[in-house]
UniProtKB/TrEMBL annotation:
SUPFAM superfamilies: DNA breaking-rejoining enzymes. InterPro entries: DNA_brk_join_enz (IPR011010), Integrase-like_cat_sf (IPR013762), Integrase_catalytic (IPR002104). Pfam families: Phage_integrase (PF00589). PROSITE patterns: TYR_RECOMBINASE (PS51898). This is Tyrosine-type recombinase/integrase. Residues 1-45 form the Tyr recombinase domain. Keywords: DNA recombination. The keyword Oxidoreductase does not apply. Signal peptide: none annotated.
């Protein structure tokens, strides 16, 4: 799985990500990316279990 936030950090236009995700409205993309960012804190790496 890739992280869409990394694309934004590397300068990809949010409209490009909007098209990639199939969103009709850029606000939906912005909400989606914000939710993904919030959920990243809850994801544990398998290496954390070692």
């Amino acid at each position: 799985m890739f992280n869409l936030k990394h694309y934004l950090e590397n300068g990809t236009n949010i409209r490009t990500l909007q098209d990639f995700l199939g969103h009709a409205c850029v606000e939906t993309t912005m909400i989606y990316l914000h939710v993904m960012e919030d959920q990243q804190d809850q994801i544990l790496s398998p290496l954390d279990a070692l």
